[in-house]
Amino acid sequence: MNGLSERFPSVVRQLRHERGWSQERLAERANLNRSFIGEIERGLASPSLVTADKLARALEVDLSALVARCEHG
Fold first, then answer.
1. I want to staple 41 with a disulfide (CB 3.0 to 4.6 A). Which of 10, 13, 29, 72 is the partner?
2. Is the pLDDT of residue 4 over 80?
């Protein structure tokens, strides 16, 4: 695994927690299913580029910043 795939779940969870949001809230903002958010955060699902962009937009960060945070910790 590379840094992106290893760290993406925890970065998404950390950004969500920083905003004080539930998985449900993030799911609503990203127009995704809450259970899918849980799978992503547990590393059980790998989001497509389109889904990663939806998550980044919902979390109010640029996709490039989200990816950089995953790669560089």
1. 13
2. no
